[in-house]
Every structure is written in C-alpha cells, then in structure tokens.
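Hello forum,

I keep getting stuck at the same step: I have a sequence, I want structure tokens, and every attempt I make locally crashes halfway through. Rather than fight my setup again tonight, could one of you with a working pipeline run this one for me? It's a single chain of 366 residues.
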Amino acid sequence: MQGTLPSQEIEKLIADGCVTSSAQIKPEQVQPSSLDLTLSRRAFSMPGSLMPLQGERVTDLIERYSRYPIDLKEPGVLVRDNVYLILLAERMNLPEGVAAYANNKSSTGRIDLQTRVLCDGNPRYDKIPEGYSGELWLEVIPKSFDVKVRAGDSLNQTIFYQGRNLLNGPELSQLVHSQVVLYDPQGNPVGTERHLMDDGLLMTLDIEQPVAGFKARKSIRPIDFAAMGQHDPKEFFEPIERPSTGTLFLSQGDFYIFSTYEYVSVPPDYAVEMLPYDTSAGEFRAHYAGFFDPGFGYGEKGEVKGTPAVLEVRPYEDDLIVRHRQPVCKMAYEKLTARPSKLYGVGVRSNYAAQRGPRLSKFFRQ
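Reply #2:
Ran it on my machine without issues. Output:
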C-alpha cells in the first residue's frame, strides 16, 4: 500500500537497521508519523548555502568550502545570518521503495531557524531518495536570532513513505464530507465548500484576536535549545495588538508569528502538510514547519474540535498589507499505510496540542 509510514513502521525501520544513529535513537524521537532527527558533534561554518551535485559527497563540499570546524560536544552558538553544516546523528540505509522527506520542527520554525537536509549525490534539499544509504547533513541558518545548540538537540524531523499518497480533489472532497476536519474558533464545524482546492484545504489569517501576532525583535542573547520554557518572550518578540481596521502592515524582511482562523483536525489515518497557498497572493513564506501528525486537533476519538495552525511569515520582495481572513496557506492531507500506534496529544508529549492563537515556541515562558 502506498502512503506515509506510521510510528510502528518507523520503529520497524529502526529495528531492522534501516535507520541507525551514532547515538541511541530514543523512543520519544518517534512521533505518530515522523522521526525527530538529532545533531552530532561534527559541524562546520560555511561561507554560504550550497548543495552537492550528482556523484558528489557533502564532505567534498566541506573540504573545499568550509571556513572552520565546530565541535558540538559542548554548547556552541550559531550566529544569525551565518550558514552551518552539521552532521546528523542518524544515518539512512533505506530499503528499496522507501524514501524520506524532511522539514523543520515546529519549535524551530517559530524562532526563524531555517534547516534543510543534504545527502550525498542528491542536488535537492530535504529529499532523501528511495533506497538511499549514507550520511545526512543539516544546513542550519539562524535568520532572526543567535541560537545555542549541542550534540543531541533536535532541529528537524522526517517522514518516510512508500510513494506519497496525497489526496486529490475528489478524495479530499470525500474526506471532508464524511467527517469534520475544519472548525471555527468557537468549535463549530466550518463549511468546507469555500475551502476545498484541488490539492488541499484553504486556510485564512486570524488577526481579530486580542494578540493578533508577534514580530521578532533584535536580541543580544541566543536562544538556548536546552532552556525550554525559560526565555523571556519580551526579549525576542513584541506582541501585535488586534488592529482596529482589520489590517496589518508587514515590513519586508521582518519575521512574524500569526495563526489561522480555521482550526484543523487530522484524523488518525492521515497526516497533513502545510503548503503555500499561491505565490501570486504575495511573496512571503507562510511556514517553515510543515508536518501535522495524526491526532493533531483530533484527540483519541475526535473529541478535540480542531487546533489552529501557527504561521511563520516573512515578506520577501515587498512590504505587505494583510487583512483578516486573507488566504495564507493550504492543508494537504495524505493517507498513511496504516493507523499509527500513537497519536499526537494522546499519550505522546506534545507541546502544541492545546495551542490557541499565535503561540510562540516552547523555548519561551508562556
């Protein structure tokens, strides 16, 4: 059966030696449909972002272009707007028919820390080819803040799949007519006709909340990945009050945190990836972290009436004016090969299962 692998199949890949680690893969790294990847000690400062060509190893690039090595056995500070390559502790020896796709963790995206996986001989970011055997490297670019990391920290995650089974238009229509997957902030089902697109559900911006969002501010302090829940949010973000006009002005190059008006629900047999809505709607990145595990906004038996998605927004080419209920992204549903043995927010440590509004990363005091 085609689709994304659930937690028990990821655990089988680990047990069969298809995913190994220079450290020990901890049980909590396995999420309902994804695996948290971790940093090794070996890191390098690079002069810019780059990727290998076919037949080229990542270590070839490091030998040719790196500026200096970094040992992350002890905590090291990665400086804003600099590029780093860090060897991941996990190594892949994927069986034929199985490939992987990586993305930022939600907590990483919410501090504007860009990560992209590189693997040998593959000139594409975050795509781990079917049957790949070898090392994985992580390109890390802090965009708004310095960050302090060490070996064992987790910045990104990956899904494994046997042919991604993204729902097409008719399949998505069938899903939303068979069960509720979108709610409004009061917990009422949202009519899906206006939200149905060819390959996803349209999500809109909510800026009619007491705190409409947050804007990153300059800080002299790094965000320490070991200090969960200990950073003062006022040092790193300024809150944006609800605009009286229903309109916000976003400055080019600045980083913002917002949330969707719609509350999304991910039933147990599915996973979701957040995708850009349409580049013609404005040149800004609507997210870094794109994976929503089975059970997000659903609970064990559908008792949770959805959870809003948090948006990481950066206008790139121009200043941007945004309004309440403006389309910002879409949710693409994909089928799992089987129901996972664990669900997000149900017996799994989940930092954002109960999030409401534009919640900051787990590194900050709430």
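The CA atoms of residues 48 and 173 lie 44 Å apart. If your local run keeps crashing, start a new thread with the error log.
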